Amino acid sequence: MAPGRGLGALPAFRQRLPWLGADLQTLRNNLLRRAVDLSAWTWRDAVLPMLDRSGDRLVARYALPNPSRAPTVMLIHGLGGSADSTYVRAAARAFLAAGHPVLRLDLRGAGASRPLCALMYHAGRTQDLADALAALPDFVVGEGIAAMGFSLGANMLLKYLAEQGEEGPVRCAVSVSAPLDLAATLAAMLRPRNALYHRYLLRRLQADATAPGAALTARERALIAAARTIYDIDQGFIAPRNGFADAADYYARCSSGRFLPSIRVPTLLVHALDDPWIPAALYAQVDWSANPALTPLLSKHGGHVGFHAAGSATPWHDQAALAFVRAAGR
Questions:
Q1: Sequence-ordered list of residues with C-beta below 8 angstroms from that of 7, at least 6 positions apart, any chain
Q2: Strands 294-299 and 267-272
């Protein structure tokens, strides 16, 4: 699909050698393991209380270019990730270089938030985003908030946008590789060709869920440790801990695809049709014309949160996000 409204002269995505194909695009950051240098900016931490009486607090790292008249960009990581994930740091660098303040959020139970949280994030825990945004100091919010979510973080963001309506604090948003249907995405992840991906994500999830700070019963800890699939954790831990009847109920109620018609702020959805984790049919079946707030940007290639493009060291989804946020802020 050609670049949509608000994207100006953004070129179509072309894969960068040697990262050809969905899997190499997806794996490139892990294979290289190069840290994205953010030392040119001064970073500070904001500790944001959750309002559910759990005592949990989220950590957000922020950098404020001075002076800046651009909206602050809040970045939301995916499953098993954190504010220090390579794709989050790359997006932070792209926006900071363009003069935007940036806030990198560690979700409940992830990264720097883990020791401060008894509970754990999940794909539909949108009240955490609402609480975090409400707790931000005015000087961080500045010229308003734009939000960018990746994978599970994108699912959470899309659901949140539908819930906030037109009057919420987020003025525009970007979703990258969102799993619009959680059950269909898990089914794809459990295919034999995705066994290595699934094993990696399962281990990351197990580590986050049981790290110091987590309040678990002995039964929950044993169940998480013994889990053979992400479904086992969703069924035995995430669903009952969060008031869902079972994993199927959790997936049905929290899948972001069902919330797309209710989004009212300009939102860009970037997705690769060769994403090895998320079926292309989930994006093909959306009636994009039904909601003018949504701009789909669907590429034939790019993998899952990959988009390593020829001709630029900046991932293509970050180029698109920057163009979209600039246009939406005019």
A1: 268, 295, 297, 320, 323, 324, 327
A2: parallel
Please indicate, yes or no, if residue 110 is contained in any of the structural domains: yes
Nearest to 158 by CA among 239, 258, 226: 258
Q: What whole-number distance in Å separates Cα of residue 21 and Cα of residue 86? A: 20
Q: What's the CA gap between 236 and 241, in Å, rounded?
A: 9
The reply to whether 234 falls in a domain is no
Residue 60 backbone phi and psi in degrees, to 5: -125, 130
CATH number of residue 29's parent domain: 3.40.50.1820
- 25-63 confidence digits (pLDDT tens): 999 998 988 889 999 999 999 999 999 999 999 999 999
Tell me the residue range of the domain where 156 lies: 22-187+259-328
> Is 205 strand, coil or helix?
helix
Beta-bridge partner residues of 49: 57
Helical spans, DSSP H, in 126-274? 126-135, 138-141, 152-164, 182-189, 195-210, 218-226, 230-233, 239-241, 247-254
Would 61 be classed as within a structural domain? yes
> What is the rounded distance in angstroms from the CA atom of residue 34 to the CA atom of residue 228?
30
Q: For residue 260, what are the CA distances in angstroms to 77, 114, 309?
A: 20, 30, 28
pLDDT in tens, 240-288: 999 999 999 999 999 999 999 999 999 999 999 999 999 999 999 999 9
